[in-house]
Amino acid sequence: MRTVFRAPRAVVEGTERPAAVLVAGDRIEAVLALDTPVDASEIRLAADEVLVPGLVDTHVHVNEPGRTEWEGFASATRAAAAGGVTTLVDMPLNALPPTVDVPALEIKRKAADRQCAVDVGFWGGAIPGNERELRALHEAGVFGVKCFLLDSGVPEFPALPDPREALRELASFDGLLLAHAEDGALVGEAHGRRYRDFLASRPRAAEDSAIAGLVRMARETGARVHVVHLSSADALPLLAEARADGVRITVETCPHYLALTAEEVPDGDTRFKCCPPVREEANRDALWQGLADGVIDMVVSDHSPATPQLKGTGDFGSAWGGIASLQIGLPVVWTEARRRGWSFADVVARMATAPADLVGLRHKGRIAPGAAADLAIVAPDETFAVGTLAHRHPTTPYAGRTLHGVVRGTWLRGRRVDPDRPAGRLIGRGDA
Prior knowledge:
The protein contains twelve helices and 17 strands. It has 432 residues and is an alpha/beta fold. It has a six-stranded parallel β-sheet with strand order 9-10-11-12-13-14. A four-stranded mixed β-sheet has the order 3-2-1-4. A four-stranded antiparallel β-sheet has the order 5-15-16-17, covered by helices on one side. Helix 11 crosses helix 12 (344-358). The radius of gyration is 21 Å and the shape is globular. The two termini are 20 Å apart.
């Protein structure tokens, strides 16, 4: 089957331009001039629509099996498809058992099988004492392993405050370590309804100290390190210097750190709680500059939902820390980006191409000959109010917000996604 998407506006090679994207089977066969005659069925985009590569979200907590009442593969991947995300990578913790060895990985794959509306890959976990499991996880197809430098919030995934041994093991086969970078010695107890007290309990210095340690260990071992959900802009100069020196360290941030500010968080509204926390407006502005400068490589959701009973306690100490945004990550980021003069293509590059490259899926996250025919049609100037979402639970700080960017359709490997007929695949490192 051949289909041509005729798009007066398409994001191709990092720029927006007219294109006819010819799809044959599950791949893009060619990118042609807009009116090139071809023998194929035709999808013609409206003047207000942009054809973009399917987004790649490499930081998603699906929580199944074990805590499926929080989220699950069926609901998470439906939400992803509704938001233009065609590939996600699931985090190793919050499911039971956590993905810290190959048997646990197989349990998770079995749970996900035939439920997924989009493609799903997996991270492994690095915890104290499982260094000998890391190579086996790598060979079984995980894209890397995640650790917490302080308490993760769930007892079955303990902290690894000194990951040197894991890094040495990973360096031996060029594996990747993801790190939740906060220094537990600098994190205080939090309780009560006042957001400023919670913010003070997890200062920028806690992130900065942890990141400095990761830089030292990455330099010492030669291993690859990825800093997840950066919220402290104070760490940007250190990261820039390390990268200039050849340290192999990459960085992500999340929609909530680019769109929300501490000044707007109402006391008691624990929908806004995440760790590390949403910080001040000036910090948000500096993160945008870090993204523009390339010190921050990408934007991914850190979709970390929980039941309303766990999330909405009103006490910033006891509420679950995580923002649900998988379905609306693109409009959240684009709404703020367009206000700052960014192009839509610039946002797509950070939310599709860069995350795909992080995990070595170079056939995803781009519109190019030979790439997967994972596509989305978006109306970037259309607005909508955040209402009912496909996540298992509706609890989100974006409820009722007016955002720009409506996803009008999502295609996976050349076929329009039908959430009632899940066709997503379970993918691994090296899949092309």
